């Protein structure tokens, strides 16, 4: 039996994350310990697109994780954990993450996949920031070493990336400064 047929049978021909029956395909969970059906999940086109491209993330779509996080399939648990981590700025997602129970080896697997994403700067919604992007500051930020405060809602145009994925560089009031990426929202 092929991996695809095993996963399709296991899932009941439904997305294992949101239960949709449309546009299904097998998704191999990144950083999997092996290359078996146990390291794959059946996903719909919407889930696949949003897993692979954080810019398309529709937070309300992922409320389905309330059910799928309790799956007995380790690969489904790992994907639910990763998506909840990506959405952890949302109160409901953080609440689900706090309730979720996984065995240590599954948490390690889930974290390995998250570490691969950590080398990229991400905004408050988990969207990857790229050189030249325009961002908006989401809260008042005091500037170290001065009395200046970057006000919430300030637009920073044409950011640059830094060696530290937690920071981006941009001009505010004519001065170039480093800004913590998670306090930005991509426009």
From TrEMBL:
Q: In what residue span(s) does the PhnA protein N-terminal proteobacterial domain sit?
A: 8-52
| Lineage top rank: taxon | Bacteria
* Gene3D superfamilies from the UniProt entry: SH3 Domains
Query: What's one Pfam family the UniProt record gives for this protein?
Result: YjdM
Protein name per its UniProtKB record: Alkylphosphonate utilization operon protein PhnA
């Amino acid at each position: 039996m092929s991996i695809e047929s095993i996963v399709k049978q296991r899932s009941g021909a439904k997305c294992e994350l949101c239960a949709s029956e449309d546009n299904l395909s097998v998704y191999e969970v990144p950083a999997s310990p092996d290359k078996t059906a146990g390291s794959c999940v059946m996903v719909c086109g919407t889930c696949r697109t949003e897993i692979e491209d954080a810019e398309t993330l529709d937070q309300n779509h992922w409320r389905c994780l309330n059910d799928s996080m309790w799956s007995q399939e380790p690969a489904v648990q790992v994907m639910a954990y990763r998506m909840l981590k990506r959405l952890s700025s949302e109160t409901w997602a953080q609440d689900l993450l706090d309730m979720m129970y996984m065995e240590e080896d599954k948490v390690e697997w889930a974290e390995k996949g998250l570490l691969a994403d950590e080398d990229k700067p991400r905004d408050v919604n988990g969207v990857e920031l790229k050189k030249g992007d325009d961002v908006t500051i989401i809260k008042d930020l005091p500037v170290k070493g001065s009395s200046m405060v970057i006000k919430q809602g300030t637009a920073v145009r044409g950011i640059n990336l830094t060696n530290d994925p937690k920071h981006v560089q941009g001009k505010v009031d004519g001065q170039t400064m480093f800004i913590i990426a998670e306090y930005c929202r991509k426009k």
